[in-house]
Amino acid sequence: MIERISYDKNGIEDLKDIIEEDLYKYSCEGLRTLMMTKRNISKEEFEQFQNIYSHLQESSNPNKEEKLYQLYDAME
Question: Would you say residue 4 has pLDDT above 70?
Fold first, then answer.
């Protein structure tokens, strides 16, 4: 998941290296970490997601779970 983060938007130089170094230190100490991120989405993007999600939820497609995971992945 850390590969998906856009580090250049925050204005902090070498942020990816700083985060990876901190995570490595924490893991060496046996600590678990949870990272959370957020992004703003447009109304249109949400409506498109909601439309596809609703159709998949109502679907009897045998690949429904896989398609939902792909949808979640695309939204991330």
Answer: no
- Answer whether 0.70 is exceeded by the pTM: no
What is the C-alpha separation between 44 and 25, in angstroms, rounded?
41
Cβ within 8 Å of residue 64, ≥6 positions away: 56
Domain definitions of the chain by residue range:
1-39, 43-75
- In three-state form (DSSP H/G/I as H, E/B as E, the rest C), the secondary structure along the chain is CHHHCCHHHCCCCCHHHHHHHHHHHHHHCCCCCCCCCCCCCCHHHHHHHHHHHHHHHHCCCCCHHHHHHHHHHHHC
